[in-house]
Structures are given as structure tokens and as C-alpha cells.
Design a protein that fits this description.
It is a single chain. With 331 residues, the protein is an alpha/beta fold. Helices cover 31% and strands 23% of the residues. The strands form three sheets. The protein has a six-stranded mixed sheet, with helices on both faces. The chain has a six-stranded mixed sheet with strand order 9-8-7-12-10-11. Strand 5 (99-104), helix 3 (107-122) and strand 6 (127-132) form a beta-alpha-beta unit.
Length: 331
């Protein structure tokens, strides 16, 4: 394992120390060292909080900032933040108008968020939740409640954060975030495994010359292992899986997000996007806005995810609102 680190057990805290120094114009620390808060945010608004395990940078702290998330709770690598961290994230986000907690569907996060919501209620803080479940490969369409949250969370945070910045009530903010994730679908293809620094070796295997379709960000099994394919064939697999699920149809407008999983060169992500764009055009699906880069990663895993969000006029307006975070900046 060739990594830049000191003691592997300290990597999350040391990462946070560096992150806060570099992005001190966007974020600031709180009394809880595992909670990051936006430095600039509108006053007298609904708070927007999120959180999750480390190793997915820029998620989750990278989406804390103006007009997006107000706070994020930080967990160990691939582990949920504690209930106490989520509670402190709610406290730091709350301005008396309630807090929308927008997070991904993982058992540890579900358990700790629920505990934190109960503790917040006892303190007089109203918290409503929206759970992202955009990963098509993780459960059948008629069982969406079991699907994982992956890169589609970014669109959920964008919509919810924008609605809050525009003065929406707590119900309006959670409705906007729910609408965004209900219209969003994702799928990933993994080419290599990743290594937890404290473990020192990959905790799952993807053999040389193969790829795993539908793999999760923590190495959760996908739906098929096949021989490594060319970019055009990978794109077709991804578009077929995602577009058929909502479904996305001729005439729809979409936002497209192609995220690397950590170690795939951005150049290759643009190759993949080019093929995806052709396929969407063939289907009569119009691309309104596109994002290509490392938006939601899995340490040094090679591969990529495709996320599509079907748009209406409200979602386009929320997507277009300027935002200033480490992971996403729009003027």
C-alpha cells in the first residue's frame, strides 16, 4: 500500500485539519471536530444538514457551503458518523426554522440519524429527513426503499439547499429534496477495488481484465461481473440501466453527472461522457446541464458512476442557483 499518511487511524482527523485550512473561506470548524459548518449562509433560513462516512471526497464535507448544505457530520472511512455528530450537525445548522437532514440510505446512517432526530426533538429542534436511494442496481424498482444512496445525493443536496436559500419552509425544502431524488437514478461500474488505509489491502476483488456493473461505493456486490469493455459499451450498459428505471423518455430534459470513483483519469471520464451523450441524443433525451469529474468517490477505486435527474422548471431553477462549495461551484 503506497499512501500519503501518518498513522492510518488518524487519517480522518488529519484530513479535516487540512481541509479546513485550505477552504477556510467556505467552511469552518464547530465545537465538535467531526462537524463542519458553512462559513457564509443566509440568516433566518431552514438549516440543511448531511453526513456520511469518509473516503468519498468531495462528499460529504465538500458540499457544505453557500446555497447548499449548512453542515456535515463526518464518520470514519466508510462508516457512519455517530448519532452525537449528527445531533451536533443539527444544532449547528438550526436557526429556529427547523433542519432538513438529507442523507444516503445506509443502515448505520439510518440508525444514527433516527437517534439524533429524537435527541434534537427533546431540545426543541425540528428535524425532517429525506433519504437518497438513487442506486438502481442495489434493489429492484418495486423495492426502492432498499436502494442505496450514491452520487444522486449531490442533486438532492443542490435542490434542498437552493430551496432553503430561497426562503422555503422546512416542508418546502424537504419536498424539493425528495422531488430531486425521486427523479434521479444512478449506476456505477468498478474496474479496481479500493483499500482502507487502516486495513492495508483491498477488502474485495475485481480481477484484472474484468469490471463489476452496479458495484457500490463500499464494494457492495453489483449485478454482473464481465470482461472489461470499451467506453461505448460501458456507456450503453449504464444508460440502459438508468434510463429505463424512472423511465427517462423522448423529450425529457435531464441533468447528467458522471463521477469518477477516485482513480480514473478525468480524461477517461470525458470519453465516457461523450458516449453517454450520444446515447441520450439517440433516445431524444435533452441534456440541460452536465457535470464530469470526481464528485463522489470511493478512495482509489477505478471506475465511474452515471447519474441522471429528470428535470421540470422548478428543478432547473433550483439546479441553476449559484453555489459555492469545495465540490461544486456555480456562478
Amino acid at each position: 500500500m503506497q499512501r500519503i499518511l501518518n498513522n492510518p487511524d488518524d487519517i480522518v482527523d488529519e484530513m479535516l485539519e487540512g481541509f479546513l485550512k485550505v477552504h477556510s473561506d467556505i467552511v469552518e470548524k464547530t465545537d465538535n471536530p467531526r462537524v463542519v459548518r458553512a462559513k457564509k449562509r443566509s440568516e433566518d433560513k431552514v438549516g440543511v444538514a448531511t453526513g456520511g462516512g469518509s473516503g468519498h471526497k468531495p462528499a460529504f464535507i465538500g458540499y457544505v457551503g453557500e446555497n447548499m448544505c449548512d453542515t456535515a457530520a463526518v464518520g470514519e472511512i466508510c462508516s457512519s458518523p455517530t448519532a452525537a455528530a449528527f445531533l451536533d450537525a443539527f444544532r449547528a445548522a438550526d436557526q429556529g426554522k427547523g433542519v432538513a437532514c438529507l442523507y444516503g440510505n445506509y443502515s448505520g446512517d439510518n440508525m444514527n440519524v433516527k437517534m439524533a432526530v429524537k435527541m434534537a426533538k427533546r431540545e426543541g429542534i425540528t428535524v425532517k429527513t429525506v433519504v437518497a436511494n438513487d442506486d438502481v442496481a442495489s434493489a429492484p424498482k418495486d423495492d426502492r426503499g432498499k436502494r442505496r444512496g450514491v452520487a444522486g445525493e449531490i442533486f438532492m443536496w443542490k435542490a434542498g439547499g437552493a430551496k432553503a436559500a430561497l426562503g422555503g419552509t422546512l416542508d418546502e425544502v424537504t419536498e424539493a429534496a425528495q422531488k430531486a431524488i425521486d427523479n434521479t437514478r444512478s449506476v456505477g461500474i468498478g474496474l479496481t477495488p479500493c483499500t482502507l488505509p487502516a486495513v492495508g489491502h483491498p477488502n474485495f476483488e475485481i480481477k484484472e481484465g474484468t469490471m463489476e456493473v452496479g458495484i457500490g461505493h463500499h464494494g457492495e456486490p453489483g449485478i454482473e461481473v464481465s470482461e472489461l469493455e470499451t467506453a461505448d459499451k460501458m456507456a450503453k450498459r449504464m444508460v440502459d440501466i438508468v434510463a429505463g428505471d424512472v423511465p427517462f423518455q423522448n423529450g425529457d430534459e435531464v441533468a447528467v453527472l458522471v463521477s469518477g470513483l477516485g482513480a480514473t483519469p478525468v480524461m477517461e471520464l470525458y470519453v465516457l461522457y461523450g458516449e453517454i451523450g450520444k446515447l441520450l441524443e439517440e433516445r431524444g433525451i435533452k441534456v440541460y446541464k452536465s457535470y464530469v469529474g470526481n464528485y463522489f468517490t470511493s478512495l482509489e477505486m477505478m471506475g465511474a458512476t452515471l447519474t441522471l435527474m429528470k428535470l421540470d422548471e422548478e428543478l432547473k431553477m433550483l439546479l441553476d442557483l449559484p453555489v459555492n462549495t469545495m465540490g461544486l461551484t456555480q456562478i
